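Q: How would the structure tokens look for this protein?
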Amino acid sequence: MTAIRVFPGAVPDLGTPLTFIIGTVVAGFSGRRFALLGSVRRAMNGPMLGILELLVGIGVFVQIATLTGIRGLLVTSSLSLPHLAAYFGAATALIVSGGLLSPFGAGAIFGVPFVLFFLDRNQTVTIVAVSLLAALSQFSPPTAIAGRFAADAAGVDDYRKVWRASLIPIGALAAVGLVVIAWADRVAVVIAAITPSGW
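A: Here is the predicted structure in token form.
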């Protein structure tokens, strides 16, 4: 994964699934020995199985939304939104829908339309801000993938406690994301000024 980015063009991109398979094979022959089938069985009986089911379902949903034209409808509909409504719509759609679709599904279905809506400003900065909004959905019920893992790690049984405690930080980060989208060109100038390579 590092070589692809360090030597772009020279090292072919194998794709994430093949990279993980290669990593699994290498892990089997390095470090402490372990029983592969036993590890797979334990992993499939734990919370990881629910995550895998969720991600497979989301992948199918995104493909069906693309096939039936719903994704294209969202793109064309978002382009006709009033300017201020687009900001509210981006924050709401990405954060709330990500609770059902995961950040990947929300980014695939709602991220692209809103990036196209804000096409008149620096696209790199805009995409980073939209990604921030999508990432905040990791705490949105019902899935709340990262939030539930955090609750398990902290020993909190009732996820509602974590959700209530995270509302203010989520709101603050959403506001930061929207401000960055609104002033994407100015943010890009600042980043270019402080980056040694000049962006």
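The two ends are 22 Å apart (CA to CA).

The first helix runs from residue 2 to 6.

Upvote if useful.
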